[in-house]
Design a protein that fits this description.
- With 432 residues, this protein is mainly α.
- The protein has one domain.
- The chain has helices at residues 2-40, 49-64, 82-95, 99-123, 126-138, 141-144, 152-168, 173-189, 193-207, 214-236, 246-252, 284-301, 303-317, 326-329, 334-339, 345-358, 360-375, 383-386, 389-398, 413-429.
- It is globular.
């Protein structure tokens, strides 16, 4: 009798706690949403770095009445995020302004949040899903990411939606087809779709739920990639379905002066293997091919140095999470300037401290993730641990190239879900 009363009491307390958790999640979510809407109508300076380049390319193509890449882009440095550039061109053509991009990105941000909630609910619990939502909204990066024309957010929305369709979408054929199309479009924006393809395939391997309909996703993805590639071929003379930056990126971390981070000045240095004489006379494909070959040759001659840089890049990739506010505080090559002594010690300390302070919610999430890994270590090799595949594969592939902290964004969602599981264990299961 006492056991029954105790169980009834625990259930009542559990329902009460769940109600409070839901309320907290909705309140925090509404504050997060309202803050982004307010920021949308604030005036900031022009977008810089890669984001400014995407907008510049879109403006040029729009003024020429064409899509990207144009014929003149054959002799450019590289084809850069063609999926995003064409999205911006479409916005110009439809509405004549890029303000709509902030509105679109706001919905994409909400879409990523919904995907994370659904995945956490399916593989863990509804309670953990609500905690994951709170953690997502608490991260500094997600308050500002809708302000800029970045590739990270649309890529993650498309790829993560494809995962949800394949894993949570049941057995309907059209969902697999749509998932394949989304993966092809995601890769058009940022060439990292392979991370999510591996994750989806591994899910069916682990669960042994193989279905012929999964092949529909593969066919749809290949068809989308080919359609994109042939549309670019009309101007470039060959297939082009993603950015042509592999050689450029690899050689930045495969040369005698490499430090593991992005060094966009390396190919202007005549003493570097990244330098190409009479580069303007070569196509973007030739430039990328030359740099790829030189980078691979350097790695073959310096495997230990490359391995050292690879290991060094892991903590750098996870170092901080404040990159999305560049629209407000400006963009700079922080690691490059630090490595080349362009900061005074006091200036460097101030900038670093500012980044660390803004990343406090991120560090708390990482602590919860580490706690969860230890406390729930028995789940690592179950279906709950499957979702970590995206983080592991993402880290392994990204560290092959130069890194910046923002590069971890597309595969950070598994950490959020597992951190939520850790918070659930810490808060609830220790009490009841």
């Amino acid at each position: 009798m006492e056991d029954k009363l105790h169980n009834t009491y625990v259930k009542m307390i559990g329902k009460s706690k769940m109600g409070k958790l839901k309320l907290a999640a909705w309140v925090i979510g509404c504050i997060w949403l309202l803050a982004q809407i307010v920021l949308m109508f604030c005036q900031f300076g022009p977008q810089q770095g890669d984001w400014g380049t995407y907008i510049m390319l879109a403006h040029r193509c729009y003024d020429s009445g064409e899509w990207y890449p144009m014929k003149c882009d054959l002799y450019s440095e590289y084809i850069f995020a063609p999926g995003l550039v064409n999205l911006l061109i479409a916005e110009f053509r439809l509405l004549g302004t890029l303000f709509v991009n902030k509105v679109l990105y706001l919905f994409l941000n909400i879409g990523v949040l919904i995907n994370i909630f659904l995945l956490a609910k399916h593989f863990f619990s509804e309670r953990i899903a609500y905690i994951a939502s709170i953690l997502y909204c608490a991260l500094y990066v997600n308050w500002f990411i809708a302000l800029s024309a970045n590739t990270e957010l649309p890529f993650l929305f498309l790829a993560l939606s494809a995962v949800s369709l394949c894993v949570l979408g049941g057995d309907k054929a059209w969902k697999f087809v749509l998932a394949g199309i989304l993966l092809g479009l995601a890769n058009w924006i940022r060439p990292l779709a392979v991370i999510f393809v591996v994750g989806i395939i591994l899910y069916y391997f682990v669960t042994r739920k193989w279905t012929w309909k999964l092949s529909l996703a593969g066919v749809a993805m290949i068809a989308t990639v080919l359609l994109i590639g042939f549309s670019a071929k009309r101007n470039l003379g060959r297939l082009c379905f993603q950015s042509t930056t592999s050689g450029f990126n690899l050689i930045m971390t495969a040369n005698d002066k490499a430090f593991g981070g992005v060094d966009a000045n390396i190919w202007e240095d005549p003493t570097s293997i990244a330098y190409i004489e009479n580069e303007q006379q070569k196509t973007c494909f030739e430039r990328d091919s030359i740099r790829m070959a030189r980078a691979i040759a350097w790695i073959e001659c310096n495997p230990i140095r490359y391995a050292e840089l690879y290991i060094k890049k892991i903590p750098v990739l996870l170092a901080e999470d404040s990159w999305s506010d560049q629209r407000i505080f400006g963009s700079e090559q922080f690691m490059y300037k630090y490595q080349h002594g362009l900061y005074s010690k006091s200036d460097f300390a101030k900038r670093l401290m500012f980044k660390l302070l803004k990343s406090i919610p991120y560090y708390l999430m990482l602590l919860l993730f580490a706690y969860s890994l230890w406390k729930n270590r028995k789940d690592i090799f179950t279906i709950k641990g499957w979702i970590l595949t995206f983080f592991v594969v993402g880290m392994l592939l990204t560290c092959l190239y130069p890194v910046q902290p923002r590069y971890h964004y597309p595969f950070m969602f598994p950490l959020i879900i597992w951190a939520a599981s850790g918070a659930d264990t810490l808060i609830y299961k220790k009490r009841y």
